[in-house]
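Exam revision sheet. Question 4 asks you to relate a sequence to its structure. Input first:
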Amino acid sequence: MQRQQKKPTLPRYVARRKGDAYAHWFQVYPGGVRTRLRGELGTAEFRAAYSAALVDAIAAEKDERISKRSRGR
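Answer key, structure tokens:
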């Protein structure tokens, strides 16, 4: 009996798309900015790219909230 390999679970906000080769993309909101994540899933390079994209997304969201508040006053 052969074991079926488990499909790797993608982190939150990550999609796998096929183009020339499979690539992983980070996108928080549909229609929002997409960032390509370098490295193979699970490697240190991939985790570093994912962390950087997540930090950028959080910073952009905070900037947007601050600018909305300042416009409202």
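Marking note for examiners. The first strand starts at residue 14 and ends at 18.
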